[in-house]
Write a structure and sequence with these properties.
Pfam families: COR-A, COR-B, LRR_8, Roc
Keywords: ATP-binding, GTP-binding, Kinase, Leucine-rich repeat, Nucleotide-binding, Plasmid, Repeat, Serine/threonine-protein kinase, Transferase
Structural class: alpha/beta
Radius of gyration: 33 Å
Largest sheet: 10 strands, parallel
Enzyme class: transferase
GO molecular function: ATP binding; GTP binding; protein serine/threonine kinase activity
InterPro entries: COR-A, COR-B, Leu-rich_rpt, Leu-rich_rpt_typical-subtyp, LRR_dom_sf, LRR_domain-containing, P-loop_NTPase, ROC
Number of helices: 23
Strand content: 15-25%
Distance between the termini: 82 Å
């Protein structure tokens, strides 16, 4: 026994509640514990105790007992007389046998850990633990799955990994409907029971390290699954694009595989400045000819069949990108991983440094260092030298330099050979895909249409035996692969499948290239679209505009009028700004991708102050605080100046938007800088700039109280410097943005904006998107979860549930939106939505939730009266049910003075608690 343990035992009294005697070299259960009859927690981890004495039964109040990592060989029966035990840990001992009596009496047990023993069998019978939530039996020698576990229907977590289980009965999981986490890894399983599909609450499933060759079809029912471990099983590897879809995509792939074929296919992306001969070179590679070509406007996509070591018929999808600068901001949507890049430079120009710097950096970022072949074209006209060694030292993904002539074919054979070699080494070449997938793809590619309705796509998949659910997984795979485009997360674009991606993207580029749009500094309307897109069907033009909005290329500035920020004048607008006493922040880029400021303007459009924006800057305002945000492409910096009482909060909003842009560009770690506040720097136009993350780390670690300024050589108080920013990695619980009253205030303002724009919305569902956008611009962390079912009129989706969360993910409230044309006593729509809001969506029992109703009635005053009466009598509505009965409803005319907006608050009882629902009814007619 260690001396300090002996001292601790001598100091014990009958009133001691918690005792920890870990790693104390105890060989016997200390007799001194006998007098501690009020003890609730006892931890004897890491000793050499072999037996537990009979007198332990007197410790009636004991709730937590850990005997982990001792020398116990038999389960101490006496322990099972302690009826108040909630947590029992007997892991890492030498237990070999378990008796059925071990699983009775502990009526309050919640967690049991008997892992890492020598248990070979858990007897048949019933585990009578009515409150048990966690059971860990990992690291034993079980050969059979213990059927007794199936009786513990309260179980939420079951860990039975690292055993020798080779099979599981089909009905083994029928009684475990509350299971959320199941670990069966590192056993000897060859197949899985169908009853696994009954675990609809399961969030984590680990099957790694087994011999499983296929998944049962019932896996489709695991609708809550968030994590699935399959490593170390003889299953087919999952294509990268499928893995990116998450657990449901992976399951769909395995369930669809069946009769399969290997896919030998990859993308070759030809990039470079304009007029360097990219299209000539593409034609020379494919056809060994150079037919008359025009400058590529947007993207040209061709198929090229070549021979590689893997396949004599390797399919190369060539994407030829237009080189005009206006296209650069869209590259982020098409430059992908698992692709080979051909960077073309013209030998007769000397501007290669600018070209290389842009293209090599953007490929490095957006494609995660995919391999690049550099082709020096037009050597028949002039040969220019290039510093290959320096470029390869900086960009290690360059795999070769080739001097070629697309015009006379010089060195084209060598370039083709290199392409064949490199494209064959891309990750996961030879993926196995369900044969039916390729059959569907072949049928779609044979169609002459540029696009088809989503309904027709689903019908084609149905004819090939795919359900709608599996068909949507497939369209997502095709989308990610770049074969077709299907934007499933957009309410309008989801209705079309673009069979020819270049048709859609080139329509966008047609607008970007329009001289009229350029002359109007990026502004266009439907009349202009009639001229610009005269070759495109009129009813498809809203899809083109939505695609631009999806790419964050434009936004609606007024009814039917849109603006492309990238086409704004580069000249700074005239504005008044007092630069003194500003909160300042800077981003310093090693490489600044195109379009960052344009995308930022689109994302913060609802905060823009008095239309003060230009190509490289914008002024935004939230309440009485303004921010000036500018970029300088030459210095590769983004500057932020903010003044007003809520400067730090507005900065958080700005940083959040920029962070999301950076993440989408695979550039999450852009250095952030903050100015020094020493006396010399405070009034300087060029203060010393600290690395913000370093200063924050110093402040959090409390390593130093001050940090030296390199200008004045004086110390600056770190916490005072950080206090100006008040930016933390996780928000504090009392942040005012999370106040339910603040959310109500913001929702009333957001609803007023919706009323201002109601006549602009030709597509009803776009109102829902506006709510999400407006809430985000006000700083709320929005989880836009679903848009499903039918609206009140049956005309469209028209409904959405929005969850507002703290930055750490904790829910704050839920907002339910739907359309309503009438509200008579027999109406079921309102009751159904209210029931969903209270009983289905909210697993946290949030104190206040919100309903926004888009009123479509001819007489809004009658609708509001009928709606109020309906809510007041909701308890008698059979559709609503008897859970969460209404205890009161009040009209809140004091919250706004708008005739077209009414607010009411209903109160509902739940186990003695009161839940509030705030109803905002808007006149959208």
């Amino acid at each position: 026994m260690k001396p300090h343990i002996k001292e601790k035992l001598q100091s014990l009294s009958s009133n001691t509640n918690n005792i920890q005697l870990i790693n104390g070299r105890l060989k016997e259960f200390p007799v001194e514990l006998r007098k501690c009859e009020k003890m609730r927690t006892l931890d004897l981890f890491g000793n050499s105790i072999q037996k537990i004495p009979d007198w332990v039964y007197s410790l009636k109040r004991l709730e937590h007992l850990s005997l982990r990592n001792n020398s116990i060989k038999e389960v101490p029966t006496i322990v099972f007389t302690l009826e108040n035990i909630k947590y029992l840990n007997l892991a890492d001992n030498q237990i070999q046998d378990i008796n059925s009596s071990n699983f009775t009496n502990l009526m309050n047990i919640e967690k049991v850990d008997i892992g890492y023993n020598d248990i070979k069998l858990i007897p048949f019978g019933r585990i009578d633990y009515p409150k048990c939530k966690t059971l860990a039996i990992q690291g034993n020698k079980l050969e059979e799955f213990p059927s007794a576990i199936s009786q513990v229907n309260t179980l939420e977590k079951l860990v039975i990994s690292e055993n020798e289980i080779s099979s599981i009965e089909d009905d083994a999981f029928l009684g475990l409907e509350n299971l959320e986490e199941l670990d069966l890894s590192f056993n000897r399983l060859t197949y899985l029971p169908s009853s696994l599909g009954k675990l609809t609450k399961l969030k984590k499933l680990n099957l790694s390290g087994n011999n499983i060759r296929s998944l049962p079809k019932e896996f489709e029912n695991l609708v809550s699954l968030e994590s699935l471990g399959l490593d170390g099983n003889p299953l087919e590897r999952v294509p990268l694009e499928i893995s990116a879809q998450g657990v449901s995509g992976i399951i769909n792939y395995h369930l669809s595989l069946g009769d399969n074929v290997q896919l030998f296919e990859a993308k070759l992306l030809i990039v470079g400045q304009g007029n360097v001969g990219k299209t000539f070179l593409m034609n020379r590679l494919i056809h060994d000819s150079i037919p008359e070509t025009q400058t590529t406007e947007g993207i040209d996509i061709k198929t090229w069949k070549i021979q590689t070591n893997s396949s004599p018929d390797f399919r190369v999808n060539i994407w030829d990108f237009g080189g005009q600068e206006i296209y650069h901001s869209t590259h982020q949507f098409f430059l992908t991983k698992r692709s080979l890049y051909l960077l073309v430079w013209e030998a007769r120009t000397d501007q290669h440094l600018i070209s290389f710097d842009y293209w090599l950096n953007v490929i490095r970022l957006l494609s995660n260092n995919s391999p690049i072949i550099i082709a020096l074209n037009k050597i028949d006209e002039r040969i220019a030298n290039i510093d290959e060694k320096s470029l390869k030292a900086k960009f290690k993904n360059i795999v070769g330099f080739y001097q070629v002539s697309a015009k006379n074919g010089q060195n084209i054979a060598q370039l083709t050979s290199k392409i064949s070699t490199e494209i064959n080494t891309l990750p996961l070449i030879g993926d196995k895909l369900p044969k039916v997938w390729l059959e569907i793809r072949t049928e779609l590619e044979s169609l002459e249409s540029n696009y088809i309705p989503a309904e027709r796509y689903l019908a084609i998949c149905n004819q090939h035996g795919l359900s709608n659910k599996r068909a949507l997984f497939l369209s997502q795979y095709f989308h990610d692969l770049g074969v077709f485009l299907h934007f499933q997360d957009d309410t309008l674009l989801r209705n079309l499948v673009f069979l020819k991606p270049e048709w859609a993207t080139n329509a966008v580029y047609r607008i970007l290239d329009s001289k009229d749009v350029i002359n109007r500094e990026g502004e266009f309307d439907s009349d202009m679209l009639d001229i610009i897109l005269n070759e495109f069907e009129r009813d498809k033009r809203p899809y083109i505009v939505n695609l631009m909005k999806k790419f964050e290329l434009c936004f609606e500035v007024s009814r039917d009028t849109y603006l492309i920020p990238e086409l704004l004048s580069p000249e700074t607008l005239e504005f008044d700004w007092n630069y003194s006493n500003n909160l300042r922040f800077e981003y310093h880029y090693d490489f600044m991708p195109a379009g960052i400021m344009a995308r930022f303007i689109v994302r913060t459009r609802n905060l823009v102050h008095d239309r003060t924006f230009w190509k490289n800057g914008v002024i935004i305002q939230r309440e009485n605080t303004r921010a000036l945000v500018t970029t300088d492409q030459y210095s590769r910096k983004l500057y932020i100046w903010i003044h007003g009482p809520n400067s730090s909060f507005l900065l958080e909003i700005i940083r959040k938007e920029l962070d999301e842009i950076h993440i989408s560009l695979n550039y999450p770690d852009v250095p952030e800088k903050i100015p020094c506040i020493c006396q010399e720097c405070a009034n300087s136009t060029k203060p010393h700039l600290f690395n913000y993350l370093f200063v924050k780390r110093v402040g959090q670690d409390n390593t130093f109280r001050t940090i030296p300024c390199e200008v004045s050589a004086t110390g600056v108080t770190v916490h005072k410097l950080l206090g100006l920013y008040r930016i933390e990695s996780s928000e504090s619980d009392n942040n005012p943005i999370y106040s339910l009253d603040k959310i109500l205030e913001d929702l009333i303002e957001v609803s007023s904006r919706i009323l201002e724009r109601k006549f602009q919305k030709k597509i009803e569902d776009l109102v829902n998107d506006d709510i999400v956008d407006l809430l985000r611009t006000k700083g709320h962390n929005i989880a836009d979860q679903t848009r499903s079912g039918a609206s009140g009129s049956g005309k469209g989706a028209g409904e959405i549930d929005i969850m507002i969360r703290k930055n750490n993910g904790i829910p704050v409230t839920i907002i339910e939106c739907f359309r309503l044309e009438s509200c008579g006593p027999k109406n079921m729509v309102v009751a159904e939505h209210l029931k969903k809001l209270l009983t289905r969506y909210d697993t946290h029992e949030l104190k206040r939730k919100f309903v926004i109703v888009f009123g479509e009635a001819e007489r809004f005053d009658n609708l509001w009266i009928n709606y109020s009466d309906y809510i007041k009598s909701i308890n008698s509505n059979d559709t609503y049910g008897d859970k969460y009965p209404l205890s009161g409803f009040s009209v809140r005319d004091d919250l706004n003075s708008f005739s077209n907006m009414k607010v009411g608050v209903s109160r509902h009882e739940n186990n003695g608690e009161i839940i509030e629902v705030v109803h905002l009814v808007l006149n959208m007619k």
